[in-house]
Write a structure and sequence with these properties.
The strands form 2 sheets. The chain has an 8-stranded antiparallel β-sheet with strand order 2-1-11-10-9-8-7-6, sandwiched between helices. The two termini are about 15 Å apart. It contains 9 helices and 11 strands. It has about 280 residues and is α+β, with helices and mostly antiparallel strands. It has one domain: Beta-lactamase (3-Layer(aba) Sandwich). It is globular.
Length: about 280
Amino acid sequence: MKHVIRPGSADISDNADVVVPWWSFTKTLIAATALTMVRDGQLALDDALPGESFTLRQLLQHRAGLADYGSVTAYHAAVAAGEDAWPVDRLLQSVAALHAGIEPGSFAYSNVGYLLVRQHLEQMSGLTLDVVMRRRLFEPLGVVGPCIAGQRSDLADVRMGDVQSYDPRWVYHGLAVGTLRDAAMLLHRLMTTDLLPVGLRDEMCHGIAVGDPGTGRPWQHAAYGLGVMAGTTASNLSVVGHTGGGPGSGIAVYHCPEHAQATVAVFATGGTAGNIEADAFKLGL
């Protein structure tokens, strides 16, 4: 499944209007929503969050010294068993002892960090993530189909691969769902319109090297900005966007700023992150 936007040419689509989980591409949307609040003077990137030692920038860059619940065995066992998501307090307790092993300022991918960003956005706006994202991101960019799934029934018409029953609240920072067409259009318009001032968008896309992205990942130089993976692919293509995966499926949504401003969204059931990225990067050439 894919959707490719290439200005000056017809879009390329294959099952692009099927609703799918966007997994960690949601992080890009959370970051973009936060940056609209920075734009409006409601948030500051480099001020410590209330009661915390880390900043919004550090959270968005995965450099706040926080662990990830992806390493918690009981979490994966509960998801595999089809259980309801744990209360947030229990989730945070499950990773509390792991934070000490992470040096603040170093890169450590953390879904917990994005949960804290979500909570901060909701507290500052007085709105749910779904509503604040819709008002600040989806509607201004003219893409109104996506939503944040909040319960199992929200996934009834979502292609989830071989997963029979999944509680979307297991994605604690929020799980956006929508079509590949909408995913590609959101990223394309985020990167090519004036929703964010140029300087702020440049900060979003400026990645700090993260080292080895992992076996089988098609990156020559991997970096992470503010809610986006950025860098150079093995085929020497500059890209910015995000890869995501969960039980049964994965997604890659990337913009190619130096190659005809193309934007690509690819979704697959099964497969690896590296394979899905490779498919996306080939389409971006």
